[in-house]
Amino acid sequence: LMEAKAASAEARAVLEEAGRRRDEARKLGPRKGIPETEIRAAEAELKIAEAKLQRLYSAECYKEELVARHDVYAPFTGVVARRLAEEGEWVDTGTPIMELVGTENMRLDLRVPQEHYPYIDANTLVSVRLDAMPSHLIDGQVSAKVPLSDSSSRTFLLRVQLNDGELGLTPGMSAQALLRIPGERRVLTVPRDAILKDAYGSSRVWSLNDVDGAPVASQHTVEIGRSFDGRTELRSGLEPGARVVIRGNETLREGQAVRVVKSH
């Protein structure tokens, strides 16, 4: 661009000189005996200089536009977290040159079990506890519920807008969220550790039955529902009031006598 500007300036000076010579030839021609041919040659040089200046100025404008198109403007307020290209490096269209992280309007992305999808909307109450500040609770609001489930984890993406107040949230912080989903009926729940899954996706629970005064293990195939606060809903397969095994259940056999150990 600087070279183009210099070429334009040079052409502009040549044009001014050609104009001066043309005017001088017209003024002195009749008195000094300057031939008409020289006067016309001076006029032609002036036109050539004008055309050259116009060509070089167009090239200058083109390069200015080209440089302007390489200016990168941040689409939002933030900080540069990582630089992906060096100064003077040639990059193609679409090549990332930096990683920009927003510091305003912070949100939390959650992976939520798919069985909760019908029960969550914009009015769902959300409380967020930052791992860096476990003593503080932040109120959140559901801003987006992405209707696409991850087939491997059977979860969907939930985005929660955070009202950080003066806590000073920063991108990348980890957090735990509590969703207050209203229940429409009473349900049977067991501790999450009581549920075992096999290679075919079935869920099993071991319960204890008293046989001759001794606890004996019995296996149940169950249908699970929603999970919350360390517990999971059982929709079928187990009767209320049953005692379930939450430790050591991976190696149990049907009818095996067990010894109950209370956790501290």
Notable characteristics:
six-stranded antiparallel beta sheet; Helix Hairpins; Elongation Factor Tu (Ef-tu), domain 3; 25% helix; rod-shaped; 264 residues; 4 domains; alpha+beta; 13 strands
What does this structure look like?
By secondary structure, the chain is of the alpha+beta class. It has four domains: 68 residues, Helix Hairpins (Orthogonal Bundle); 33 residues, no CATH class; 73 residues, Efflux pump adaptor protein, beta barrel domain (Elongation Factor Tu (Ef-tu), domain 3, Beta Barrel), CATH 2.40.30.170; 64 residues, conserved putative lor/sdh protein from methanococcus maripaludis s2 fold, CATH 2.40.420. The chain has two helices and 13 strands. Strands 8, 9, 10, 11, 12 and 13 form a six-stranded antiparallel sheet that branches. Strand 4 and strand 5 form a beta hairpin. Helix 1 runs antiparallel to helix 2. The two termini are 76 Å apart.
Give a quick rundown of the structure:
25% of the residues lie in helices and 34% in strands. The chain is α+β, with helices and mostly antiparallel strands.
The CATH topology of the largest domain comes to Elongation Factor Tu (Ef-tu), domain 3
Total domains: 4
Helix proportion of residues, in percent? 10-25%
Structure class: alpha+beta
CATH class of the largest domain: Mainly Beta
CATH architecture of the largest domain: Beta Barrel
Uncertain runs are none
Task: Write the SSE topology.
Elements: H1 2-32, H2 36-69, E1 78-83, E2 98-102, E3 107-113, E4 125-130, E5 137-150, E6 155-162, E7 175-180, E8 188-191, E9 195-197, E10 203-211, E11 214-228, E12 231-236, E13 243-244
Antiparallel strand pairs: 1-2, 3-6, 4-5, 4-7, 5-6, 8-12, 9-10, 10-11, 10-13, 11-12
